[in-house]
Known about the structure:
Order of helices and strands: HHHEHHHHHHHHHHEHHHHHHHHHHH
Distance between the termini: 56 Å
Strand order of the largest sheet: 1-2
Radius of gyration: 26 Å
Largest sheet: 2 strands, parallel
CATH superfamily of the largest domain: MetI-like
Amino acid sequence: MSASDASGLRVARTGGGARALSLVAWTVAAACILPMIAVALAALTGGTGTVAGLLDTVLPRYAATTLTLVVLVACGTFSLGVGAAWLVTMTRFPGVRLFEIALVLPLAFPAYVLAYAYTYILDHPGIVQATLRQMTGWGPRDYWFPEIRSLPGAALMLVLVLYPYVYLLARAAFLQQSSAAFLAARTLGHSTASAFWRVSLPMARPAIAGGVLLTVMETIADYGTVSHFSVQTFATGIYTAWFTLADRAAAAQLASCLLLFALMLAVAERRQRGRARYHHTGKAHLRMPPEALHGWKAGLAVTLCAVPVLLGFLLPVVVLFAMGLDSEQDLFSRRYIGFATNSLVLASVAACVTLLAAVAVGYYQRSRAGRASALAGYLARLGYAVPGGVIAVGLLVPFAWFDNALDAWMRSTFGVSTGLLVTGSIWLLVAAYMIRFLAAALGAYEGGQATVHSNMDAAARSLGQGPVGTLTRVHLPILTPSLLTALLIVFVDVMKELPATLIMRPFNFDTLAVQAHRLASDERLDGASVPSLVIVAIGLIPVALICRQVGRRD
Length: 554
């Protein structure tokens, strides 16, 4: 073979690899946008009667409750996350090194698991109220006690598990700030608190806003907590319309309302992240000198940092463990082994599929930089802003139509019924997980990809490697730690996911999350604690990795 023939073959292989990569990336992007298009079309074909009925009955209540919950969670996570981040970053007090890691631990809890624990101890028959009645001799109507199963109670559960998002981003922003502006404000007569509000907080605004928007998106996607507390939001309305009322048009229209709100938040997050910039003046970046706290100030700082760790992690773990000891659930029984196996299989398959999709989209953006690849990446990320229930409805509607049309054609043509080939299958559920958590895997992959210098790509091309060869022989070996992190994050997120699993799981195919929800719905909180503890234990794995990174101070 001549040199020109070899060169032509190499170019053909390179072009073929590039086209295959582009095809895979756009297939993933199309899959991510499919549920949103399907929900919108299903909502439009539902008829005006359903819309009018929703407007006259439940829609105003769902909208008001969801908006109130979002505002409460946003304010709570902002206060806890920013306050804790400032204390552990800019001050020194007893136990600060321990608290800067421990404040991340509540992230391991799904909010609905925290709801089960606090219902057990704070509800009317719970430990706290029962002890109060026993000590005072009061009857049920002789005293007032805050109702945990309420909108404020649901907001509190979500705040306790979601504030670490704001804490991590705010802490990183404070660590990156130079002391020049802060010290200049102090020399101009501002107190420490005034300099914080006027200088440090505005400089960290992009990171903090990103963290708060993440908590808001998780709030509108939550189903387990609001369902257990009987709080009527769009998430509970979608599930009720789909299963209880068997009204798919109403479910699609409720999902479209929630989808519109989620997309507005996604655009807002994208815009504020795109404007985020940090500028340091001077030749050197000077770290802010931490202020040593003593006396009552140190005690107050310890208390403020200890309360969220105690309420968001330590107390729920103790309560769930005590509940599990009194339950009749056998974690090693054949039934529970089946739940655990289903959860592990689903999470493992979904994590692998999601990681492959993230690698395809992320590398496509790098190797074919331009508007087309940027659009594919943006579409692939939209799923993180869409609740699991919306994705479930958006996938079931078109594939149910496809299954029914195929079955009708096979019956009329060959006299054979195909049944439901796609709807109710594990693979459709895996697709929902991939769409929901692809953004998380993309973030982890692209974070590692940024460390691979472009000169490595040029060197690989000069040695005759196409896009696929460069990816498999250069990028993937270097990015192994980032790939494992992405795999683990998606694995744990799938273990905790509830709405999509409830709606889309195959018949008689239950997971640990579904079992916990079922037992809690039957008011068997002792039993619900057992699968909940397993979910929390698995959730501690990525949190431990995050804590390891947090502990590495510059």
